[in-house]
Amino acid sequence: MxxxxxxxxxxxxxxxxxxxxNRLGFGAMRITGPGIWGDPPDxxxxxxxxxRAVELDVTFIDTADSYGPEVSERLIAETLYPYPEELxxxxxxxxxxxxxxxxxxxxxxxxxxRACEGSLARLRLDRIDLYQFHRPDPxxxxxxxxxxxxxxxxxxxIRHIGVSNVTEDQFGEAERVTAIVSVxxxxxxxxxxxxxxxxxxxxxxLVFIPWAPIEEAGAIPAVIAAARRHKATERQVALxxxxxRSPQVLPIPGSSNPEHVEENxxxxxxxxTVKEIRAITLAALSR
Length: 287
Fold this sequence. Notes:
alpha/beta; about 40% helix; single chain; TIM Barrel; two-stranded antiparallel sheet
């Protein structure tokens, strides 16, 4: 790694053709308390992590009303507002929080409207550039949930709509209602269960946002070996591998620690060899 790496080293990605961001973002789930509940143990440090991400050219921040709940969105606004012109803040609605570590789907149209309007107020925005349906609700048809977001888009409160934690069939149902520009599913070097959805994003030139992008990074020997060769951490190599997986991938590693933010961003400058990429890919597929 030469010089001071920034998120710009990952290159750029277009969201629906009218938003361009650097292809290494920041996930703001971890700037909350244990169990993604309440305030972080050190609010000042969490806010410094946000500032550090922006200083390192991160132009895409992903959050949700359920992180805290509401804590992540409020901290983002407290720390970064007024926002840099190039910064895109994406948020999500569709999960409610009965307590720490607990997540309950709520895809009712009236709930999604309240959730979106609450996010607008907390983030101090007139329009959310990317609003994502956080998780399908088994009690509510996806068409009804997405239809509510389409109405909010028509009202100018949402610019683009994304979906999260969906199967191919669920994505198809959503896409029949309105244009979908992104998919956010769990995906990393170990967990490749969303490979079919990533293939769909490749085919349709949609943004694929992998959550938990660096989880279990040290579980693959090929990742460990590449980390040693590049004098990097396993997490950095896992992120570097994700960036090679597809030009439609937009990783969003997150942390409430400014030093960890710097480490994550530095992954953008790691150039894995073809052999290393193949070894990591094959190791993951064989698990």
